[in-house]
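Fill-in record for Site-specific integrase.
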Amino acid sequence: MIITHPGGSLLHADSQTWCGHLDNLFRSPVFQDKLDDVGDPLFWAPLIALHMGLRSEEILQLYVSDIQVIDDIPCIVLRQGPGQSLKSLAARRTVPIHDNLLKLGLMKLIALRQREDEPRLFPWVERSQNKKTFTETFSKRFTRYRQDHKVYDKQRDFHSLRTTFNHLLIVAECPDTQRRALMGHVERDIGIVHYNPHGFSEKQLQQRVNAIEVDISKIRPPFDEPQSMNVTHLSDRRQPLPA
């Protein structure tokens, strides 16, 4: 599979990203067959990491309330709520949801969880007994899945999906300051730290996220039909991030 950014440059596979190998992953059963669980994290978590650059624990610990519409832009708000942890203060951020995830029906999943009165986005993932993380539990399943379906490569694990997102931002000529904001990395540009203390607008970041082009045309949406990107059914629930 070849991925291009809007300028038309080709991205070549390397040992750190999934570029050139996503087709094999997307041809595997969880992306092709009708899902028994439309909220299966084996389907959603890799796609969220690839399209938004979130870490595995950030994804798996999400509450439904972490998905908010801000100025008409659906976003994931990463914060340290009850039972949640973040790698650093810089990891506390708001990331607009990529259009591909909206087309695949992510907002339908949110609506389903709301109807179920289920606070967590992925309620069936449990913390591991060893490290007490969702990641350890899920990583074992993701590794076993890739081995079972002949898409295993030790150089391309779940974290490599986040690496791919970072790589695609660079290729799409995303300014480093906005790339670091999306990735949850520490900002070291003094000009940005002192003169842009409130960060970038959701509109600015949405444009950067959607500049990444990934072909999802072969993926079967869990809700069977691609969803319109109209998100007016989710009320604006923007909340201040905790100090």
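KEY FINDING: Confidence is low (pLDDT under 50) at residues 1-15, 231-243.
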